[in-house]
Amino acid sequence: MSTAELSADAARRPFTGRRVRFGDLALQVVAGGAALGVTILVALIIWKVIEGARLSIQTYGLEFIWRVAWNPVLGHELYGAGSFIFGTAVTSLFALLLAAPISMGIALYLTELAPAVIRGPVTALVETLAAVPSVVLGLWGILVLGPALRTTIQPWLHDAFGFIPLFGPPSSAGASIFTAIIILTIMILPIVSSISRELFLGVPTELKEAGYGLGVTRWEVVRGVMFPYASGGLAAALILGLGRALGEAIAVTQVIGGGVGIHWNLFSGGDTLASKIAASYQGSTTKLQTASLIYLGLILLVFSLIVNLIAQWIVRRSARKHGIVRGGHA
Amino acid sequence: MSTQDLAPNPLEVRGLGRRKATNRVMEGLAWLSALIAVGILGVVIFSVARRGLPALNFDLLTKDPIPFSLTNQPQGLANAFVGTIVIVSLATLMALPVGILVAIYLNEFAPAAIRNAVTMILDILNGVPAIVIGIFVFGLFVVGHGQSGWAGAFALACLMLPLVSRSTMEILALVPNALREASLGLGVPRWRTTLSIVLPQTVGGIVTGTVLAVARVAGETAPLLFVSSFVGTQTSWNPLHALQTVPVAIFELSESPDPADHARAWAAALVLLLFILFASLSARWLANRSRRKITGR
Does the pLDDT of residue B161 top 90, yes or no? Predict the structure, then answer.
């Protein structure tokens, strides 16, 4: 017997030769290294964004966050995030307000009402809406939707409800906060509705049947059984939708029109944190302006981290709650 | 007095008519919501197709753009299509192996505490806005070195990584434990069990996740604006220089006042949209097939 045969035999034999344990160790180290790499990557993202914003943080401190100013004129430079935080809040909250009932409706239609034949295709179509790239949606928004809204819905709302400051005179450009809200609504619809659909599918049939057995209507089962059962998950779905709306840069930049200042007229231009950053991609004139743009990115990063962690916390809590409920059945 | 007043019909519940009406209204609204979503998708696709088709020709894919052209020379966006192919391929090469390794570690080796922590970090990474990823890569690679295709690929890889990892983890969790136990019981070491028994079962799922991730990042503009956007009009395959990409080209053309630029933007949007729709639909089909294969249902 040659030594080559011997070692090959040893490799085949389990739990003895060193080579076997070496393979396990190697895979574990390589794969574990990749997992460690992801952790380092996230830390690096946070660190790099803070570092990039440092000049602006040192110059303006926390006052930057609420100051309403963006003046890049040399010698009079003054930057603040106030109007962009306001723009972000207005666009994403209104978009969420519009998207929430529609996505619940879609999810309920797909789980409770749709005939089996069209259930699959409609689910696929709604998910396809999520796949449309934001730049394409933005292109459609600026060239088709914006002009259409400016000549139809906006004058109508202004004439009918002009006494509400939200519905001021439409801007001539066609780009407006209102168009941005509609585009964001379209973007978060498929996200919220697909998570809600899964949550509604997860409601135990016996709970729903208990409701129907009492003779209540379908809507009463939805309101009294399905909504309470899925409430935690629905909240998380809405918060994830909010996170998506907060961070969207490109489509919003294309349709929102730009502008600094706080005003309540949805039909004129504005900017969000993300859209201001994206709109300034062609370069800034000074180091302070670059750092201030990155400071906007830092604020956006903090917002999205908070939103994300809240959503995860809710998901975990409601999973635990339902775990206990299920344990009680057994 | 009639008998009805003495013994009311027990099935005649109070307010039943109103409750039924409410139910009908709510059902109608749910129906309408689904119609709105499908309608929006239809309108968007129709708009892009109607404006994109007339401008769609081979010149779009094969000819470079001509800056400040006053003549009607045929011009296209070949540089953008080549750039997108280069950057997205490099991003996939970076994200795919790392994403799969992370999933293997989390699903096959990691203790529960570490698995939960790293899964949370993947979710956080997934939630970081694309524009912030752009700023990060700008600070990491572009400051002092200039824009490059590599930096763009790295930015897109950051977006792909959590998608690939999460989808691989989901499919790994579907592989029956009996399979692992059978292999380990035969004396196959753990690393070989993982790589040659468990992993081959998940190929379909990994391909699906990767196709979805590619479809998602191929349309991303925000992370590339700061790291690969200052480009010439020549087609280049060299990722050491900044490369034009389809989404960035559409973004720039959409901001232009020239209707001819809009026409090319629509045509490029149509190509991008068709690619992404094709990729997502085939991923859906693959997902159903591979899930059936593993779970036997």
Answer: yes
Residues in chain B: 297
Give contacts of A108 with chain B, Cβ < 8 Å: 30
All residues of chain B having their beta carbon less than 8 Å from the beta carbon of residue A110 are 34
State how far residue B102 is from chain A, nearest Cα, in angstroms.
Answer: 5
- pLDDT single digits (tens) A214-237: 888 899 999 999 999 998 889 999
Predicted local distance difference test score (pLDDT) of residue B256: 83
Q: Is A291 on the interface with B (CB under 8 A)?
A: no
Indicate the pLDDT class of residue B215, thresholds 50, 70 and 90. very high
Please state the ipTM of this predicted complex: 0.88
Q: Which of A15-19, A165-169, A181-185 has the highest mean pLDDT?
A: A181-185
Mutate to test the interface with B, among A18, A21, A29, A38 (most CBs of B within 10 A): A38
Q: Could A139 and B31 be called an inter-chain contact, meaning their C-beta atoms sit closer than 8 Å?
A: no
- B154 shares its domain with B284: yes
**Domain identity same for B91 and B44:** no
- Radius of gyration of chain B from Cα atoms? 26
For B191, the closest of A26, A133, A247 (CB atoms) is A26
Whether residue A188 is contained in a domain is answered as yes
Question: What's CA B116's distance to the chain center, in Å?
Answer: 24
Alpha-carbon distance of B75 to B236, in angstroms, equals: 16
Shortest alpha-carbon distance between residue A168 and chain B (Å): 25
Q: Is residue A18 over pLDDT 60? A: no
- Whole-angstrom Cα distance, residue A142 to residue A72? 26
Count of CB pairs separated by less than 8 Å, A with B: 268
The verdict on B27 and B92 lying in the same domain is no
What integer pLDDT is reported at residue B13 of this predicted model?
A: 61
A104 touches chain B (CB under 8 A): yes
Give the range of the structural domain holding residue A254, as residue numbers without chain letter. 81-329
- Same domain? For A18 and A113 the reply is no
Residue B281, domain extent:
62-295
Chain B, residues 78-97, CB within 8 A of chain A, namely none
Sign of CA dihedral A282, A71, A300, A235: negative
Instruction: Indicate if B67 and B163 belong to the same structural domain.
Output: yes
Residue A72 lies inside a defined structural domain of this protein: no
**One domain, residues B48 and B173:** no
Residues B230-281 pLDDT 10s? 877 778 888 888 889 999 999 998 888 888 888 889 999 999 999 999 998 8
Nearest Cα residue to A64 out of A259, A303, A288: A288
Number of domains in chain B: 2
CA angle A52, A298, B126 (to 5 degrees): 110
Average pLDDT, chain B: 87
Does residue B187 form part of some domain? Answer: yes
Closest-CA residue to A249 (of A319, A296, A284, A215): A296
Per-residue pLDDT band at B72 (split at 50, 70, 90): low
For residues A88 and A33, membership in a common domain is answered with no
Neighbour tally for A330: CB within 10 Å: 4
